[in-house]
Write a structure and sequence with these properties.
Rossmann fold; two-stranded parallel sheet
Length: 294
């Protein structure tokens, strides 16, 4: 059995930050870490009202720690550093930073350059901003953990969304670089690469609708947002966000780097690397099939 890459992470009595934490996977991670005894979980979300509302509901559930909602545009490096400074001043050293916020477009090469830049800023540079602020502190303190939410698109490809696919590959590459460069200095790194998860990103619904979901897996293909990216997972397993959060917390406890709640993703990635031409040909056929769907 391969030795765990990271020291096992237990959220009990720890300070945790979750970006994009007011809905979907982020809200589910917050619930799970709170249940598992985190001293403080900070929900950092672009929407301050939603962040505070979700924090209040989670704090009222199982768990005795504090849950705090704050506003943050993760693409703003200065604001990210200021928030990290404030959290550490008010609540103590950050033990786990979940760079979870992400956006998708459902578009291709025609996407406006400003949108490409925004997606890059949120899906990649937000992780860089957090790492720049935290890694020197973690090295000095001898520990700390970065959890990057990427996607199965980081290992394979997301049909119908070029900016999302490109930036999620970038997010995984950055997580790997940090793990290689700073792992021996006590910095733990994990990268979450799920396939279909019941979140606003997949279903094209408002974040308010999903903000307080229990994470159940009951859904219909009619719920999907109609994009090719969504249609591509219709016949795949779509997990509830809370299922993913439990899987993530358990994987952190095992010290894993690559976290794949859909185990088939590892098989797909292996096939892609074994015969890339054949893989691309197969994906072309899938795209042609989805193009014909009404």
């Amino acid at each position: 059995m391969t030795k765990s890459l990271n020291q096992p992470f237990d959220p009990r009595d720890k300070v945790v930050v979750v970006t994009g934490g007011a809905s979907g996977i982020g809200a589910a991670l917050t619930r799970e870490f709170h249940k598992r005894g985190a001293a403080t979980v900070v929900i950092a979300d672009l929407n301050a009202d939603r962040s505070r509302g979700v924090a209040g509901r989670i704090a009222a559930g199982k768990g005795n720690g504090a849950v705090i909602g704050v506003q943050l545009d993760v693409a703003d490096g200065e604001a990210t550093t200021e928030l990290i400074d404030r959290i550490e001043s008010d609540h103590g050293p950050i033990d786990l930073y979940c760079a979870n916020a992400g956006i998708a477009t459902g578009s291709g090469v025609e996407t406006d350059v400003d949108i490409w830049n925004r997606v890059w800023s949120v899906n990649v540079m937000a992780h860089v901003h957090a790492a720049r602020a935290l890694i020197p502190r973690w090295i000095e303190r001898g520990g700390g953990h970065l959890l990057t939410t990427a996607s199965a698109a980081a290992l394979i490809t997301n049909l119908g969304d070029a900016p999302y696919s490109v930036t999620k590959h970038g997010a995984l590459a950055f997580a790997e670089w940090v793990a290689i460069t700073h792992g021996a200095q006590g910095v733990g790194v994990s990268c979450l690469c799920p396939q279909g998860v019941r979140t606003p990103l997949l279903f094209g619904s408002s974040a308010d609708e999903f903000a307080d979901l229990s994470g159940g897996t009951s859904w219909s293909a009619d719920d999907l947002d109609g994009s090719m990216a969504a249609k591509a997972v219709q016949n795949q397993r779509v997990l509830g966000a809370d299922e993913v959060a439990v899987f993530v917390a358990d994987a952190l406890g095992r010290g894993e780097f690559l976290i794949t709640p859909h185990e088939e993703v590892r098989e797909y990635a292996q096939k892609r690397t074994e015969d890339t031409d054949r893989w691309i040909a197969g994906m072309r056929k899938l795209q042609a099939h989805l193009d014909q769907d009404p």
